[in-house]
Amino acid sequence: MKRQILLPSIEKRITMSEPHLTDEQKNAWAGFFVAHGRITRKIDDMLKKAGCVSMDVYDVLLTLEIAEGGRLIMSELASRVLLTRSGMTRLTDRLEKQGLLMRQSCPNDRRAIHIVITEKGIRERERAWEVYRAGITQHFASHMDANDFGEIERICWSLAKNNEE
Fold first, then answer.
1. Of 16, 41, 57, 163, which is most buried with the most CB atoms under 10 A?
2. Predicted model pTM
3. 51 conformational bin, left if phi > 0, alpha if psi -120 to 50, beta if neither
4. Which residues is 56 bridged to in the sheet?
């Protein structure tokens, strides 16, 4: 049996199957979903206005920068930044043209291609961090007190761990 529920904070009808969610569960999800969307959109707008890379590009560059040797195989990069392989390929093509990363053959497997961050990619990620940090402060951190951070950290990392692929 399917039920239609109305999530009041986003005013969209969603069809859901059993088991039922409590109002508290629905409201928690809606709050998380809306807050995440609004905050990331505002930070992305700040990055755009400052002439920096987008949050998606920042995520790719940071993931490569912290990877061993600044490189990952395409499929591993796609899974770490939560993009499909085809989406990652399109983004990689664009970032390669901009000189932010490059492709290199994998010495151990000729079929595999490493995606490698360039010096320009590192510089652009570092430049974007100043704007990104300010956005996190303005739209996230400044709206909570010190006790909230530990609780949010615990909850979010628990959710991430329990939903690993």
1. 57
2. 0.80
3. left
4. none
